[in-house]
Amino acid sequence: MVNHAAIRPANGLDGNGGAIPLLTPYRQQAGDEQLLLELSHRVVLSPMTRCRSYGNVPQPQHAALYYSQRATSGGLLITEATGVSATAQGYP
Q1: What are the pLDDT digits (tens) for 12-58?
Q2: Could you give the strand order of the β-sheet that contains 7-9, starting from the edge strand earlier in sequence?
Q3: 28 and 52: one domain?
Q4: Which DSSP state fits 80?
Q5: Same domain, residue pair 10 and 32
Q6: What total number of domains does the chain contain?
Q7: DSSP 8-state class, residue 4
Q8: Closest CA to 58 of 90, 27, 80, 73
Q9: At 7, which helix (H) or strand (E)?
């Protein structure tokens, strides 16, 4: 179990509550040793509803191309949800 009170950024803070520079590295740790997440910058691509699943096939090959074009080394992107059937998409 992760102690969320112990999770803290390891760098990028100025110590006075100042702004965190957007392009600086980010490390999230739990306690002194367990590394949870390490990013080379703080830009995160949020999930977007692209609705590009054809024939109810989740994440076809073009989705891998789409996200690889937007990925950066050491970055974080969160992919969209996919419809798993014609009646389970959340849209009419």
Answers
A1: 555 666 666 888 888 888 877 788 889 998 888 888 777 666 665 66
A2: 7-9, 26-30, 34-39
A3: no
A4: P
A5: yes
A6: 2
A7: G
A8: 80
A9: strand 7-9
Q: Which domain holds residue 9?
A: 1-41
Say whether both 24 and 49 belong to one domain. no
30 SS3 class: strand
Q: Does the structure show a pLDDT above 50 at 7?
A: no
What residues contact residue 63 under an 8 Å CB cut-off, 6+ apart?
50, 52, 53, 79
55 with 92, same domain: the answer is yes
Q: Report how far residue 41's alpha carbon sits from residue 74's, in angstroms, rounded to the nearest whole number.
A: 7
Helix H or strand E encompassing 77: strand 76-77
Which of 60, 41, 53 lies closest to 90, judged by CA? 53
Average pLDDT over residues 55-77: 79
Give residue for tokens 């992919």: 79
